[in-house]
Specification:
Order of helices and strands: HHHHHHHHH
Distance between the termini: 24 Å
Helix content: over 70%
Shape: elongated
Length: about 200
């Protein structure tokens, strides 16, 4: 299998999501600097939250923990995020472009022989090991946060559609609700088996 590029998630996270729509785009040198500063602050909040959630867990973390870790004021936090839940959703949104290429590779894989699938699973295990902190944060948070659960369910539905479109033997997933549910359960098990 050709390797999937495995970006460092902290680098990818800084580039994956556009600035919040509440932020003015700004023109001229001063506004470009302000925009860059806002983006840097937002990135520090996200990266600080990842470190805090890794140490304490999402459920035990509070805004003050993230502020201290990111060295950002409370006002700056709320200028970027309405809540810890919004910050967590940002982490999930930024991480999606990091893991999605692996599933796109699976969908495009011709033939899907046992050897190809074994190699792909090996890549997934390596991916989860290299991104263990975020994977565990999101796995735990999904259990506690209904909004994030809905977001990840939509990601999973999109993955099922991708697989149905990329593999003729799975085309029935488009219209078979029971088959979609079984595929969703299988993807969830695959997900968890890679990092537990």
């Amino acid at each position: 299998l050709p390797p999937v590029s495995e970006p460092d998630y902290t680098v990818c996270m800084g580039n994956a999501i556009a600035m919040d729509s509440r932020q003015p785009s700004g023109e001229g040198r001063g506004n470009a600097l302000q925009t860059a500063q806002r983006e840097a602050t937002r990135d520090r909040l996200v990266e600080g939250a990842i470190r805090v959630f890794t140490r304490k867990g999402y459920a035990a973390s509070v805004v003050a923990d993230v502020l201290k870790e990111a060295q950002v004021s409370r006002a700056s936090f709320y200028a970027h995020f309405s809540s810890m839940q919004a910050l967590l959703e940002e982490i999930a949104d930024r991480f999606a472009p990091v893991w999605q290429p692996y599933y796109a590779q699976l969908a495009r894989m011709p033939g899907k022989t046992r050897g190809q699938l074994r190699d792909w699973c090996g890549q997934m295990v390596r991916f989860y090991r290299e991104n263990e902190a975020i994977c565990v944060i999101l796995a735990h948070a999904v259990l506690l946060d209904q909004e994030l659960y809905g977001k990840t369910a939509r990601y999973q539905e999109a993955l099922i559609d991708l697989l149905a479109d990329g593999e003729p033997r799975l085309a029935h997933l488009r219209g078979d609700a029971d088959a979609r549910m079984r595929m969703g359960l299988m993807l969830s098990q695959l997900d968890r088996s890679c990092y537990y």
